[in-house]
Write a structure and sequence with these properties.
single chain; alpha/beta; Rossmann fold; 7-stranded parallel beta sheet; 46% helix
Length: 231
């Protein structure tokens, strides 16, 4: 059975991706910082009859990343790595003139350095399976939204990491996937006090992502909306 590592799987898009893959026969290694929520997801995966390992921790920890890769190795392969875990940074979103530089370093550590470090650790397994890496991007990586300089620039940097990795690893599929706006805790934190109930649930984005994964699309950046309505 195929094996996936999905980071940030205790809630939101990561949770939705993990559950969908399990329903389709995948074995999962998932992580998150919220232990009760992560264990709830683990029980759901077990109920679907799939092998799964839930590892509580922070992707910025080298030991935690090593445990994720080691767990996938125990399952025998690694076919898919989904870099979903990320941080918004300060909320309300500050303008760049006021952005605390210590907070910006933290954003880059979570959103850029940690995903690359996890990819580095996972490459031997991914190469063996001719696997796929998906890193979750954002329209803030390519658009100039006021207040989104920290998060958006970190996602732009991650996009470029993926873009270069695609050139360096031609036998792998390396995707940047922009899901669009979603009704998540992170999106709510970006708009404190506002009603975001008009945004789609994360589950609605999984089908476009699965279409991408099951296609023969070359490595690159894709948006969920590009796959809506595809046969």
């Amino acid at each position: 059975m195929p094996v996936a590592v999905v980071t940030g799987a205790s809630r939101g898009l990561g949770r939705a991706i993990a559950i969908d893959l399990a329903r389709d026969g995948w074995d999962l290694v998932i992580d998150g910082r919220d232990e009760p929520l992560l264990q709830d997801v683990g029980r759901l995966l077990a109920g679907l009859g799939r092998r799964s390992r839930t590892i509580v921790g922070d992707v910025t920890s080298p030991d935690h990343r090593a445990a994720l890769v080691e767990s996938a190795g125990h399952f025998g392969s690694l076919d898919l790595l989904v870099n979903n875990a990320s941080t918004l940074g300060p909320s309300p979103l500050p303008r760049l003139e006021d952005y605390p530089l210590a907070a910006l370093r933290d954003v880059y550590e979570v959103n850029v350095i940690a995903p690359l470090a996890l990819i580095q650790g996972a490459l031997p397994l991914l190469r063996r399976s001719h696997g796929t890496v998906v890193s979750i991007s954002s329209d803030a990586a390519v658009e100039g939204y006021e207040g989104w300089g920290g998060y958006g620039s970190s996602k732009a940097a991650l996009d470029q990491v993926q873009h270069v990795l695609g050139a360096e690893e031609p036998r792998l599929r390396i995707y940047q996937f922009d899901p669009g706006d979603m009704r998540t805790a992170m999106h709510q934190a970006a708009f404190p006090g506002e009603d975001i109930s008009d945004r789609p649930e994360p589950e609605s984005v999984v089908a476009p992502l699965r279409m991408l994964l099951e296609s023969d699309a070359r490595s690159g950046r894709y948006r969920a909306e590009d796959w809506v309505g595809q046969p």
